[in-house]
Specification:
Elements (H helix, E strand, L loop, with lengths): L11 H12 L4 E5 L2 E8 L3 E8 L5 H13 L6 E5 L6
Parallel strand pairs: 3-4
Antiparallel strand pairs: 1-2, 2-3
Length: 88
């Protein structure tokens, strides 16, 4: 048996973000003040991608994604949700 010591601030969300980043070969993000888009897939067009640790998203969760899409006239965006099963 062996263990891996991780950075104390390494969360499951950060691990999932890294997996999404790696799987889709993403290297860019966007930030303006308090607003942030986790990843930008840049080809002929830009595809903004948000990663959230939730079972269900709500309007507040999509606010920054929709702001970015409207500001830069983008018609498609991506959303990745993940959640942990609660122990009974």
């Amino acid at each position: 048996m062996f263990g891996i010591k991780c950075h104390p601030r390494l969360t499951e969300r950060k691990v999932f973000e890294s997996l999404v980043c790696s799987a889709f070969h993403l290297k860019r993000y966007w930030r303006k003040g308090e607003k942030e888009i986790d990843f930008l897939k840049v080809n002929e067009k830009i595809l903004p991608i948000e990663v959230k640790e939730k079972a269900v998203s709500n309007r507040k969760d999509t606010k920054t994604l929709l702001y970015f899409m409207k500001r830069y006239n983008i018609d498609k965006g991506g959303y990745c949700l993940f959640w942990k099963k609660k122990k009974l």
